[in-house]
Amino acid sequence: SAKKLGKDQAQVFDVAFIERMNQNWMLEQELQRYLEEDAIQVAFQPIYSVTAKRIVGVEALARWSHAVRGNISPGVFIPIAEEAGLIGALGAQVMRRGCREVAAWNEAWGVSLFLSVNVSAKQFADAGLLAAIHSMAGECGLGAELIHLEITESVLLMDDVAVERTLMEARGYGMGISLDDFGTGYSSLSYLLNLPVDEIKIDRSFINDLHLDPRRVELVRAVLTLGQTLGKRVVAEGVEREDQLEILHGLGCEFVQGYLISRPLESEAMNDLLGMVGKARRDC
Ligand code: C2E
Ligand code: MG
Ligand code: MG
Ligand code: MG
């Protein structure tokens, strides 16, 4: 009967729900263990200047290579870390590793790459966040002005006063503030006027079909104009194709990031890439 069917469905739903809860709980426990063992890895993706024709910075991206489950995507484990109260510890590990690697590359290759790190809204609740980041950079010998904090609009939806205070604190240290995934959240425009944001990263969903959809070209053009008017750097994320890069170049977009330039790399591969680029530069 329909009634019986309904009951069975409810039961199926409950089982699936409980399984998901269990799964999340297990992942939480395991993530905690990996964090305790300092076993969360960091990948680095270059950010490239089209006009200077060189890598100007790298974005640090957390990686979890699970001994049994294989690679778990940040799209899965970052929300789990946020829910479980582990995002502070995770963020600190990514920041520490990032500072260490970038300071070493800058020293070894005579460059001054900046380090971009994603900071979750949840981390902003920690009043000691900026002081901790600042001292970590200092310990590694990386100038605070080479640290860029990538935030999303979810940060800006929080308590205005606390967010503004934290962002001003970052600015006080000379760090850059970058608005990530731009165009996918709410009411970014007033934030751009009122908060100390230095850089806009156009979400890759707008870059995806750039070569197919003239309306997207106009949209990106508008964001570039906005950036220029307000004095903010603009980075295009998710550039995968030569024709997308050409369009962006034609629009005067200076900074790009994406698989076309390079996928996120392990630190050793990133070091090799910087060495190769440095050698090519010296040879010509
Ligand atoms: P995001 O900050 O917007 O980072 C860019 C994402 O786009 C990365 O995914 C990167 O691998 C991917 N990507 C870069 N170029 C291309 C491209 O050309 N095509 C495509 N299809 N994708 C590209 P990833 O590493 O999976 O990270 C996903 C998100 O997880 C990040 O998005 C960020 O919001 C979050 N995340 C990663 N690491 C951390 C972290 O240490 N802390 C926090 N709070 N969030 C993190
Ligand atoms: Mg980012
Ligand atoms: Mg992000
Ligand atoms: Mg993004």
UniProtKB/TrEMBL annotation:
Domain EAL intervals: 24-278
Source taxon at top rank: Bacteria
Protein name per Swiss-Prot or TrEMBL: Diguanylate cyclase/phosphodiesterase
Annotated organism of origin: Granulicella tundricola (strain ATCC BAA-1859 / DSM 23138 / MP5ACTX9)
Residues of the full protein shown: 507 to 790 of 790
